Amino acid sequence: MAADARTQKSSSPTNTSGRDQPSEPATKRWAWKIGRIFGVDVYIHATFVVLLAWVAYGHFAGGAGAIGRGLLLVLAVFGIIVMHELGHALVARRFGIRTRDITLLPIGGVSRFDRMPEKPIEELLVAVAGPAVNVILALLLWAGLALTGANTSPVGMGVVGGSVLTKLMWINVSLAAFNLLPAFPMDGGRVVRAALALKMDHVRATEIAAQLGQGMALLFGVLGLFFNPMLLFIALFVWMGAQQESRVAELKKVLSGVPVESAMMTEFRVLSPTDQLSLATRLIVAGFQHDFPVVDQKRLVGVLTRGDVVRALSQGDAESPVASAMHREFATAHPNDMLETVLARLQAPGVVPIVVLRDGDLVGIMTAEGLGEFILMQGARHATAATPRADERARPNGDRKVDPIDPPAFVKHARPG
Ligand SMILES: [Zn+2]
Questions:
Q1: What residues does 407 pair with on adjacent strands?
Q2: How far is the CA of 90 from the centre of ligand 1 (A)?
Q3: Which of 80, 155, 238, 294 is the most exposed place for a label (fewest CB within 10 A)?
């Protein structure tokens, strides 16, 4: 299976590359870069070794030759998954969306995009492109096998034995079919959502697609209990993916049309690059704030986060100047930018806050905590409001609360499929 999780990144704030963006997803942490194709870095996850070992073990009885063939098959499958992901990536590129990287996991590929397609038709085409690659590969293999008079029947095929090309053909067929299941985080779930979004608003489309996904998850779960434990794993994967999608959509709805100005922190202290880090420590302890814009003669030169301070202190640098520990690269936003657009930028844990500038003047800072509090307040307002805002469609159960307690959950925001 090839599920691809895509992390959304805001495109609005400028100057975004942090010195050490700790926003890598968990899947990237144990991954090695193996190459670069079409300008996209390809990583391989450590758990992939487990799969190699499993296949080698399966072929063990056949001797070194069989093990070699088995490993070759695994490599071919991963080549196929890379092509599937490149299918998504190249179509996304046509719509001006950059793919940051692709990570290969034993369960498939994970692509991370700079941002998600905005138009439903673009989302649809990007989602379909991956399975389309598998369909084309399957057809090519089938044509090759048919021309040479080889057997194309899947009967009697197992992990060991059988023609490798026939196996690869059926692997492509299964990958296409599996990924087109109409359930998030499969590509098919995204296709359903995009198709619905052509007719209705995005949140409603996501809700329906997510419900369908959770229905599928239940079905997988029940089948898994009776037939194949692997299905239980997939059920869980699909269930969580569907839940996450609907949360993100709802959150965006709550934030849509709200400017950064409404949620930014306007009461804050600034530091000078020559201040000692111990001053930052005292301010943090005194409860001023966690992150400080660093200003040198009215010019914004950096952002010092609590993480920077902790790191410096652990190296015994309490007397060092702020300039030695601060982030020199950071995102900026305008007070009139929409919260939706900065949301993704504030998602990862430990991310550098966004500095809000109006005509070059520092007017606020936008932190994940600040955004979390804003969402909490919005949620409370919605919960007590007798009538929902006119531009909002109340959910069937009337519960408009978003989940402010757990930013990483709405934030992680994998868009797999
Ligand atoms: Zn895919």
A1: none
A2: 12
A3: 155
The CA 263 to ligand 1 mean position distance, Å, reads 36
Residue 87 CA, ligand 1 centroid: distance in Å: 8
Residue in this structure with the two tokens 């809700």, named with its chain if needed: 207
User: Tens digit of pLDDT for each residue in 292-340?
Assistant: 999 998 889 999 998 888 888 888 878 889 999 898 888 888 999 888 7
Domains of the chain, CATH where assigned: 1-180 (no CATH), 260-372 (3.10.580.10)
For residue 139, report the distance from its CA to the centre of ligand 1, in Å: 18
pLDDT in tens, 85-126: 999 999 998 988 888 888 887 767 778 777 777 788 998 999
